[in-house]
Amino acid sequence: QVQLVESGGGLVQAGGSLSLSCAASGSIFSINAMGWYRQAPGKQRELVATITSAGSTNYADSVKGRFTISRDNAKNTVYLQMNSLKPEDTAVYYCNAYLVRTGSWYASDYWGQGTQVTVSS
C-alpha cells in the first residue's frame, strides 16, 4: 500500500507565501516523478508543477516565477514553495506521485487527499 500525506496550505492574503509538502510512504520501489495539481471550484484539475527524480521541473505558465517545486529523494518528499500568491491561486492542491510499487513491473499514479489553499484579496 502507498500513501501520500500532504501538509501545509491554509489562508493567506494576496502577495503572501505558503509552503506545501507531501511525503510518500509504503511499498515503494521507485518514484519517477512527483508533482502538484490543483482544482478550483467548478473547474477541472490542472497541473501546477512537476519534478522528475533527476530534478527536471515543469511549471504551469500561470505560476512560473512565483512557485518553486523541489524534492528530497531520500525522504520521498516533494515541496511546493508558493510566493506572490494571487486570489486565483485559491484551490485544493493535490500531491501526485508516478511510482513503481515493490513487486510491480510498471508505474502508476497515486494521489494525496488534497489540501486547501485560500488567497484573500
Describe this structure in words.
This protein is an all-beta fold and 121 residues long. The chain has no helices and 11 strands. Strands 2, 4, 5, 6, 9, 10 and 11 form a 7-stranded mixed beta sheet that branches. The termini are far apart. The relative contact order is 0.32.
Percentage of residues in helical conformation: under 10%
Report the β-strand fraction as a percent range. Answer: over 45%
How would you spell out the order of helices and strands? EEEEEEEEEEE
The first-to-last residue Cα distance is: 41 Å
Question: Which features characterize this protein?
Answer:
121 residues; seven-stranded mixed sheet; four-stranded antiparallel sheet; 11 strands
Sum this structure up briefly.
The chain has strands spanning 2-8, 10-13, 18-26, 28-39, 46-52, 57-59, 67-72, 77-82, 91-101, 107-111, 115-120.
Helix-strand layout with pairing:
Elements lengths: L1 E7 L1 E4 L4 E9 L1 E12 L6 E7 L4 E3 L7 E6 L4 E6 L8 E11 L5 E5 L3 E6 L1
